[in-house]
Predict the structure.
Amino acid sequence: EPEVTQTPSHQVTQMGQEVILRCVPISNHLYFYWYRQILGQKVEFLVSFYNNEISEKSEIFDDQFSVERPDGSNFTLKIRSTKLEDSAMYFCASSVQGRTDQPQHFGDGTRLSIL
Amino acid sequence: DQQVKQNSPSLSVQEGRISILNCDYTNSMFDYFLWYKKYPAEGPTFLISISSIKDKNEDGRFTVFLNKSAKHLSLHIVPSQPGDSAVYFCAARTYTGNQFYFGTGTSLTVIP
């Protein structure tokens, strides 16, 4: 069964450094998402991306965050200047379409630890 | 932001019995609801969904019930199996957006 893959599985970064989290969505999916889950808290939406542009973003997704689809397969989340509170599990997801009764399929996540 | 709530952080059930996981929501604009299952060190795995035009959806051992007037969603697992032990999240989406709002999860333990 096709799946969303994320790399790396664990990223340790010094505070203030830039980090890029990578995702390969399911190949025929057109909508891509990033969510995060801070330890002990709920999964929170960050951003959705369609047709090479952001279609929706949350309040969490401020100017330090950016997303990109640099080629036909990868979907990346960049955090420009990391803070301690950015430590979380980051999940990438994709769906065939948006705003329809189609589930989003999640990767296994990248655990980001900011020191 | 507590639009989706799972008030039971954990649930233990004997193998073979029914597991009932509950979820409440506050946003009347939600029109699509899902249950995800999550094992440690893995991402959420889609389990079953229901649209707001229905009140029940069944897939094998899993049935989701939606009570729109009560803004309540439940997942029934019958019969429960040890492999069902995981954290279960309910999630909901409005008809105007792409993002899913997640509950805090219920950790289900099925005792052999």
